[in-house]
Amino acid sequence: MKTACLIPTPLLINSRTCHTILSPPAWRQLRSPPLSATKRLLARAPNATTNDGRLLREGIAEFYDESSSLWEDIWGDHMHHGFYSPDSSVSVSDHRASQVRMIEEALRFAAVSEEPTEKPQRVVDVGCGIGGSSRYISRKFGAKCLGITLSPVQAQRANALAAAQGLADQVSFQVADALEQPFPDGQFDLVWSMESGEHMPNKRKFVSELARVAAPGATIIIVTWCHRDLAPSEQSLQQWEKELLNKICNAYFLPAWCSTADYVELLQSLSLQDIKAADWSQYVAPFWPAVIRSALTWNGLTSLLCSGLKTIKGAFAMPLMIEGYKKDLIKFSIITCRKPQ
Ligand code: SAH
């Protein structure tokens, strides 16, 4: 069976016409509760340590400064979930191939063209880690990629890897805030955010910046951690759910979470087109158990002990991610759209 058959039919919404091709049950699932996404996101109580912009940025930078080389030693240059599926020719134990597959599946979901005249040429990698996606995408399309991260250690390492791989003319990385990107409007034909959205304290500003730097007709891809969509009767998550997410926030320097439906609503409010979203949680299920197994090896344990407190705290939170997925609270979401021409 081809992989595509296993991927759930995307939830497809054309924001310009408000035309929906969702089946009724799927639409009900995606529909937002009465409070609009923006109001709900603004209404969430700020958390003194993580929602304060400066403290949060510093925490994120230090967390990745401290943990990135350990991650790279064990897992390589992609700091995102692997995409695993039963039909795959990729072995479940080949995590690096699964992480590359995540990039491929995201591009495929967003229908990014490989045709010479249509393929992306200018790409921004928002929350670039050590630049694994940028280098991969640059090679695949021959594109120029600019990456931003809050971590100086990551930016430096990403540039060093690009130089070592002969890509210094094609890709470059700098320290910058995704909420205030150092780029003029309309620069990029592919805007890529792979597992950085969960760190953004202001989701509206985040998606507005993605849309601002996108060129007319550009594709925007957001792959991110979300909480489950709320039922129409719910105003917020349940108390136990909030408590579990808070623990994860404290370990990984995350502000308040939002749902996939919140993202869709935000993108609609910015008049973006061809909005699609899907829950890929089932395809990433083997990931955290694998990370825990790798941390429990001799190499993993010794490296972890030498890495620093933030990284160790992060390691202790890994079972919480598994619990969140198992209890259907955490969703691994892809949301894509196109900026109008
Ligand atoms: N996309 C990369 C890394 C994911 S880790 C990959 O797939 O390998 C999360 C990344 O988001 C880190 O590089 C972190 O520095 C970055 N990040 C988090 N908040 C950010 C912000 N406000 N501005 C820029 N980068 C941010």
Automatic annotation (TrEMBL):
Transport recorded as keyword: no
Domain Methyltransferase type: 124-222
Pfam families registered for this protein in UniProt: Methyltransf_11 (PF08241)
Entry keywords, A to Z: Methyltransferase, S-adenosyl-L-methionine, Transferase
Region named SAM motif II: 186-194
InterPro entries in the cross-refs: Methyltransf_11, PiNMT-like, SAM-dependent_MTases_sf
Entry's Gene Ontology BP terms: methylation
SAM motif I: region residues: 123-132
A GO term for molecular function: S-adenosylmethionine-dependent methyltransferase activity
Annotated region described as SAM motif III, given as residue ranges: 213-222
Top-rank taxon, per record: Eukaryota
Coiled-coil blocks: none
Entry-linked PANTHER family: MAGNESIUM PROTOPORPHYRIN IX METHYLTRANSFERASE, CHLOROPLASTIC-RELATED, METHYLTRANSFERASE
Family statement: Belongs to the class I-like SAM-binding methyltransferase superfamily. gTMT family.
Protein name: Methyltransferase type 11 domain-containing protein
Species for this entry: Dipteronia dyeriana
